[in-house]
Design goal:
Strand content: under 5%
Number of helices: 10
Oligomer: single chain
Number of strands: 0
CATH architecture: Up-down Bundle
Helix content: over 70%
CATH class: Mainly Alpha
Shape: globular
Radius of gyration: 19 Å
Length: 241
C-alpha cells in the first residue's frame, strides 16, 4: 500500500518562546517590577495550602509540587473540550475552533510536564529527600481538588476557571523570578541539560529557572486572553450579541 503525503498539515503549537540570556534577565526584571494579579479567595486558599505544606519560601522541592499541580487545569479543559467536540462534531466551523483550543491546551499541559520533569531531576541531583505523605499524597489531593474545581468552573463560568489558572501561573512566575534573584549562586551552577533536546540548554541554572518562570507568564497571558474568548461550544455570533 502506498502512502499519500499530507500537504498543509498544521503543526502543533511550539509552546512559549525560548529566550536568550539577556532576554531572560530582562524578563526577570519585568516580572519583579510588575505587581501580582489580584488573587481571588479560592486562589489564595490554594497558595496558602501549599505554603502550609512546603513553607512560604520558594525552593526547588516546592516548585516541583507546584508543577505537579499546575498541569491539572489544562487536563480538565482538555477533557471538557473533547466532550464539547463530540456534541458539536456535525458543525465543522465550531468543531474546528473547539479542536484548536484543545490542541493549544494540550501544548500548555505538555510544557508544564517538562517543567515537572526538569525540576524532579534537579531534586534528585541535589539529594533532597521527599516523603510519601508530603510529596506524593498531599500534592495529589491538592491536584484532585484543583482539577475538579477547574472542570466545574469551565462548565458553569468559564471566565472564572481561566482567571483561577491565570492567578496560579502569575504566582508561579513571581516565585521563580524571586527565587533566582535571592540566590545569585545559581548564576554559577550549570544547567544539567537532562532534557536539553526537548527543552533547550541554558548557560546556567539561573537561566533555566528564568525560562520556566517566563513560560508561566505566557500561560498566564493565554488564560487572560481566554477569559475574553467565546466559551467552548458557543458560536462566535452569539458572543457578539
Amino acid at each position: 500500500m502506498s502512502a499519500t503525503a499530507l500537504t498543509g498539515r498544521p503543526e502543533a503549537p511550539a509552546g512559549p518562546p525560548k529566550l536568550a540570556p539577556s532576554e531572560l534577565r530582562a524578563a526577570q526584571a519585568q516580572t519583579l517590577d510588575t505587581p501580582r494579579l489580584h488573587y481571588s479567595l479560592l486562589a489564595r486558599l490554594l497558595f496558602r495550602t501549599t505554603d502550609l505544606a512546603y513553607g512560604a519560601a520558594p525552593g526547588i522541592v516546592k516548585f516541583t509540587m507546584l508543577e505537579f499541580i499546575a498541569r491539572v487545569p489544562y487536563q480538565a479543559w482538555e477533557r471538557v473540550g473533547y466532550l464539547v467536540l463530540a456534541r458539536h462534531r456535525g458543525h465543522s466551523t465550531l468543531a474546528k475552533r473547539v479542536f484548536d483550543r484543545i490542541v493549544t491546551t494540550r501544548a500548555e499541559q505538555d510544557n508544564e510536564q517538562w517543567h515537572l520533569l526538569i525540576l524532579q531531576d534537579l531534586v534528585q541531583r541535589s539529594g533532597l529527600r521527599q516523603s510519601l505523605l508530603l510529596h506524593r499524597l498531599v500534592p495529589w489531593l491538592i491536584a484532585f481538588f484543583y482539577y475538579h474545581v477547574s472542570w466545574l468552573l469551565l462548565v458553569i463560568r468559564p471566565q472564572a476557571s481561566y482567571q483561577l489558572n491565570a492567578a496560579f501561573e502569575d504566582h508561579a512566575e513571581h516565585e521563580y523570578m524571586a527565587f533566582v534573584a535571592a540566590h545569585p549562586e545559581l548564576e554559577h551552577q550549570p544547567d544539567p541539560g537532562t532534557y536539553a533536546a526537548q527543552y533547550g540548554r541554558y548557560a546556567c541554572l539561573a537561566d533555566l529557572l528564568r525560562q520556566i518562570g517566563h513560560d508561566e507568564r505566557v500561560h498566564k497571558l493565554d488564560s487572560l486572553a481566554s477569559m475574553r474568548a467565546p466559551r467552548l461550544g458557543e458560536p462566535l455570533s452569539e458572543q457578539a450579541r
